[in-house]
Specification:
The protein is built from 8 helices and 8 strands, in the order αββαββαβαβαβαβαα. The chain has helices at about 10-25, 45-60, 85-90, 105-120, 140-145, 165-170, 195-200, 205-220, and strands spanning about 30-35, 35-40, 70, 75, 95-100, 120-125, 150-155, 180. A 6-stranded parallel β-sheet has the order 2-4-5-6-7-8.
């Protein structure tokens, strides 16, 4: 969402329009975490520039919305580098949002998640529906959750013909901890009533679990439940 940063909003006005849409759907005081993209081998000056851009946007935008805005990041992991974990950490927590190249293997995913855990962070795996090793293999997400890794499906995937079937399967089966808006433009889905009405009849757990209760656990720095989630537990 951060304007002018990687593939976020193209302009400051577009970023504010996304926030305006969220403001009409989310209760006053709801937290929106901005997660511009970082890599584990990104030079420090480039990473600082991205963080500074997010903070400057928040300082101006918070005066125009009743939402609470926070700056974190989404960290692309590949190879042996593990820089910028701290920069991407959700403020006040040990949780950090991570992603991989789409062609990553299952074994490499396991190794990378273990490396993050050994550093003392709690990884949150972004958009698992995009990875080949995940398709039809929910047991692998169960394994990651038992290791201490969270799983977050992207709402943008629900608008993508290639990724939508797997994203829906994970949500309907309780094989995710949350649903993130992942809004890059004012055309992207947000976690509002339109998206809810299209999903709610089919998902096993209440909508509020994916969009409020477990996200609140993340912001409170709590360990997440093992997958799959069960309706009766909520």
């Amino acid at each position: 969402m951060v304007p002018g940063v990687d593939d976020g909003a193209g302009t400051h006005g577009e970023a504010l329009r996304i926030l305006e849409r969220m403001g009409t759907e989310y209760p006053a005081g709801s937290t929106v975490v901005l997660t511009p993209h970082f890599t584990a081998y990104m030079p420090g000056r480039v990473a600082r520039g991205k963080s500074d851009s997010a903070i400057r946007f928040i300082e101006g935008a918070e005066k125009l919305t009743h939402l609470r805005l926070m700056a974190a990041g989404e960290l692309m992991l590949s190879g042996f580098a593990l820089e910028n974990l701290e920069r991407c950490r959700y403020p006040g927590t040990g949780h950090v949002l991570i992603e991989f190249f789409s062609g990553i293997t299952w074994m490499e995913t396991l190794l990378q998640v273990r490396r993050v855990l050994r550093r003392g962070y709690r990884p949150l795996l972004a958009h698992p529906e995009r990875y080949h090793w995940c398709r039809g293999r929910s047991d692998r997400l169960v394994k990651l959750s038992r290791m201490g890794c969270g799983v977050l499906v992207s709402a943008r995937s629900l608008q993508n013909r290639k990724h939508a079937p797997e994203a829906r399967r994970l949500l309907e089966g309780g094989f995710a901890h949350g649903l993130c808006s992942d809004a890059h433009s004012d055309r992207d889905a947000i976690l509002g009533e339109k998206l809810r009405s299209g999903l709610a009849p089919d998902i096993l757990v209440p909508w509020e679990v994916y969009t409020w209760e477990i996200p609140s656990m993340i912001l409170e720095d709590l360990p997440l439940p093992e997958l799959p989630l069960r309706k009766e537990d909520w």
